[in-house]
Specification:
This protein has 686 residues and is an all-alpha fold. The protein contains 28 helices and 2 strands.
Length: 686
């Protein structure tokens, strides 16, 4: 019965994952086909003629929008007789098939022990990640062929039998994308010398064929533009995520930039290929292919976004000895490959060099820096397990509602937490901005809220606003408080909990996250004009100054922030969360601060006319619900102290116990976690 139940659950999960992959595929195809002609497959449609039929007149590179190699143009020339509409549909669905094939090959090539569960689940997960990645989305919208070289290399390495067939496929991929030729050294140094020679010969043959058929285009591509540099966009544009592009963006140019680029490229090739060969010999050929592709991305003169799919393949590498660290590298790769750099890093000048080159940084890190585990490591299959504490029994038997959401004693990985917080806030800001309702609807909701407050006798906004304006010191204080402490206090509390109280940090962070997600529901379904934007009510906006809704400049302000995201008030909600955390966990002398911060915040949001009183009630509601959801999922925050371990006989002879290494004690991964994790019993009681 147990085996049948497990099989049924596995089948359900598999169906759900394939359904997600299918939805993403349909959505991607629809996003391309619904665009009008001229806005879809933009690179391919540069060949569209006056009669709507694709044709090539003159050079491939006359418009400088075609960035492929001459051999790519030679392959595409048979399509010049196809009608525009039919070609667009065929190209889109052909690209979908290539992505599906790529996902199936990747799932088959995963390193490690083969298991039925992994084989069933890996393929839809791989296809979904490919569909979400920036290179695949870019290839769909532009009509590029950059997925094909990646698929040819993977087919040559994992599917085709025989070195000659493998070399031919990789050579064709190199003819389409010249940087793929770097796979020849990988083949040579891993013992597949015939495949390496065949790949180079195939590349030379097809390149020569393209040169004979299109000598002018070949001269333009290989000599005038040195492998495509300057085609499509300028080499120093943000779209060029190669070392050459990064150096140009840094202000270097001329012979100095060329020499520095060649030196850095040589170093990356040496380190990256050396690591790739080592992992290939270790039995992790897919990781070796990914690292070689990352090297190709970094050292190419131009590496456009649609050519960076190699970086996503590096997600298969395993990093970290502890189970809690295993998700960091996959999360970093997936976020980098699916989100723009502006969502990953704050808009700070010191971070701009990293933010503008985040894909290149990820490729360089994978190729030369990230310490992937070898299969001979005892932690490759069995990382040091995460230590969980026993929760205090709850009053209701169904709590925790999700048994797998157990209390973790140790603090989470800092890099992963920072990424989650940053990306989570970026998503929150975008959804909040997208949730902006119309002005008329928001003002109507404002009148509704004001009517309810009058009926309840709590419509104190006008009085509080006038009192704040009359008292100059109060206006200055509340303006400063409203603008300053909204982010500082919650982040400070989270930082202190992370360092000092890791077992308490997790439930506190989760409750704040739930409250913020619930607030987005309110912003989306109930756009509300705050008092300062209600015409004819006489409120004074002390923070932003007078707002002229009839002025065209006001529209620019609404593009930066949603002016109607007032219900619920997260200014008050976050301050209430801070106050409750301080009341629960802080020492007695600090607990009054837990009352003062929400009190000052609600006075500031009402006195400055930025929120209604009921907005604060809404903020309190989402915070209370956030705490309730955390309790339902994981139970009470109190944890039972660990039971004392029984005394075991010394397995070492007398005088030798002290010589036992730590590695010997932790090689089986059963006790190594206790030295690294905090014991909740050691935390001071609140």
């Amino acid at each position: 019965m147990a085996a049948g139940s497990a099989g049924a659950r596995l089948g359900t999960v598999r169906v759900v994952l394939w359904l997600v992959a299918a939805v993403l595929a349909v959505r991607q195809a629809a996003a391309v086909l619904r665009r009008p002609p001229g806005e879809r497959l933009t690179d391919l449609e540069t060949w569209v003629g006056d009669n709507g039929v694709l044709h090539v007149t003159g050079s491939l590179y006359d418009t400088r929008t075609f960035t492929g190699s001459p051999f790519s143009g030679l392959v595409l020339k048979p399509l010049t007789r196809a009608a525009q509409e039919s070609l667009g549909i065929a190209w889109t669905f052909g690209t979908l098939l290539l992505v599906v094939a790529l996902g199936l090959v990747v799932a088959r090539a995963l390193p490690g022990r083969a298991s039925r569960r992994r084989a069933l689940l890996a393929a839809p997960v791989a296809i979904s990640l490919l569909m979400l990645s920036l290179p695949v989305r870019n290839s769909f919208s532009l009509g590029q062929t950059s997925i094909l070289p990646v698929l040819l290399v993977l087919l040559g390495c994992f599917v085709v039998r025989g070195e000659r067939g493998s070399g031919i496929l990789i050579g064709v991929g190199a003819a389409l994308q010249p940087a793929v030729l770097l796979f020849a050294p990988l083949l040579w140094f891993t013992g597949r010398k015939k495949a390496a020679v065949t790949s180079v010969s195939t590349f030379a043959l097809f390149t020569a064929l393209a040169w004979a058929a299109m000598p002018a285009d070949s001269w333009t591509y290989w000599i005038h533009h040195v492998g495509g540099v300057g085609l499509g966009e300028r080499a120093d544009s943000l779209a060029n995520q190669s070392l050459h592009g990064a150096l140009l963006r840094a202000g270097l140019e001329g012979p100095l930039e060329i020499v520095l680029f060649l030196l850095l490229a040589a170093g990356v090739v040496f380190l990256g290929l050396r690591r790739a060969v080592r992992y290939a010999r270790d039995g992790q050929l897919l990781l070796a292919v990914a690292l070689t592709g990352c090297v190709a991305v970094a050292v190419s003169p131009t590496a456009w976004q649609h050519q960076l799919l190699w970086v996503l393949l590096a997600v298969v590498g395993r990093v970290g000895k502890k189970a809690r660290d295993r998700l960091v590298w996959p999360a970093v790769v997936v976020l980098v490959m699916t989100l723009p750099g502006k969502m990953l890093l704050p808009n700070m000048a010191v971070l701009h060099p990293v933010r503008d080159n985040v894909l290149l940084v990820a490729a360089l890190a994978a190729a030369c820096g990230v310490p992937f585990l070898s299969r001979t490591s005892p932690y490759f299959y069995r990382p040091v397990p995460t230590e969980y504490a026993r929760p205090v029994p709850s009053r209701w038997g169904r709590i925790p509602f999700a048994p797998f959401w157990r209390r973790v004693v140790s603090r989470p990985n800092l890099l992963l937490e920072l990424l989650v917080i940053r990306v989570g806030y970026s998503v929150y800001a975008k959804i909040r901005l997208a949730a902006a309702g119309g002005r008329a609807e928001a003002e109507e909701h404002g009148r509704q809220v004001h009517s309810v407050e009058r009926a309840l006798g709590i419509d104190i906004e006008h009085w509080a606003n006038r009192a704040t304006v009359k008292a100059g010191w109060a206006e200055d204080f509340f303006n400063f408080y409203y603008s300053t402490f909204h982010f500082i206090v919650p982040l400070t509390i989270l930082g202190i909990l992370y360092v000092r109280r890791p077992a308490q940090y997790r439930w506190a962070r989760s409750s704040l996250g739930f409250a913020t997600i619930l607030a987005l529901v309110g912003f989306w379904f109930y756009p509300l004009a705050p008092p300062r934007l209600m015409p004819g009510m006489g409120f004074i906006d002390t923070v932003h100054g007078p707002q002229d809704l009839a002025s065209p400049d006001y529209g620019a302000l609404t593009q930066l922030t949603n002016q109607y995201a007032a219900m619920p008030s997260l200014h008050f909600g976050w301050s209430l969360w801070c106050g409750l955390i301080i009341l629960i966990l802080a020492p007695k002398w600090m607990k009054p601060l837990g009352l003062l911060h929400p009190l000052f915040t609600v006075s500031a949001i009402v006195g400055t006319a930025n929120h209604w009183v009921l907005d604060a009630v809404g903020g309190a509601t989402v915070v209370g619900t956030g705490f309730a959801l955390t309790y339902l999922l994981s139970g009470r925050r109190e944890l039972l102290p660990k039971a004392a371990s029984p005394v075991k006989p010394d397995p070492f002879p007398a005088g030798k116990a002290a010589k036992a290494s730590k590695a010997d004690r932790t090689a089986d991964g059963t006790t190594a976690g206790t030295a690294d994790t905090a014991d909740p019993a050691r935390e001071p009681s609140p």
